[in-house]
Structure formats: C-alpha cells, structure tokens
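Bench notes, afternoon.
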Amino acid sequence: MLHSPAPKFQAIDSFGDKIDFPILGKWNVLYFYPKDNTPGCTAQACSTRDGLLSHPIENMVIFGVSPDSMKSHAKFIEKFALNFPLFSDEDHSIAQAYGVWGEKKFMGKTYMGVTRKTFLIDPAGKIAHIIDKVDTKNAFSQINTLIK
C-alpha cells in the first residue's frame, strides 16, 4: 500500500462538507481510530487538536475516521473542541479500503473493529507514510516529524 495511490472515496465530514478524498495539492492525514470518547482515542484527538493550534502545517488537511455515527462525532467534537473534521464510517467501507477493518482480540474476546493507524498522503495522492504504532498522546508529533 505504501507509495501507491490512496484509495479514493467521497464522504460528508462532520462539518457537513462533501469531501472527495484525497484532496489533491495538499498533504492529507487520514487517521483511523476505534471509538469516540474512549481514553486512547480522546488522547489522539486532543494531541492532534493541540498540535494544529501550536504548530499549524501549511498545505495540510487532517481527517479522523471511526465507525461512530455523525451524532457521536458531533458530541465528541464539541466536548473536546476539536478543530478538524471526522468521517463517520458506519458501513466500514473506508476502513476496509485502507485495510484497517478486521478481527481484533481483547480480554479473550474476538470481534471485528478498526485498527488504529495513520496514513499520510502526499499532494499527488500517493500514500507517503503509514504510522502503524500510533502514540496517542503524541499523535501530532508523529505526523509533524514525517511531513516536514
């Protein structure tokens, strides 16, 4: 998947904008996370929010993606004053296109879910970097280091 064209999709983001992804001519950050309002996902979102405020990167857009509903995303954005949009992927089609939807195990139980990963897509629409081991508390720093 690395260095190949990013899977394209069209979706409405949490701000109500229709997005043709990836947005060519800009760095695109697409980060997948399992669930709104959980400790790791909240840390990741807040790290991204704070990083965008203190170290804005020109020519970059960030989108978070989870299977949560738009209603859940709206509450999550409001509660944590997030400054970037989220995509609702209730049918898992975006996660499947990026290979992050699959079987997971937790406390002896097996279930289907999202694997936390971040994709950095260059302005030409190719996957430039994949962060497999996301440090939720320093998620923006991981992105910032790779895009510079």
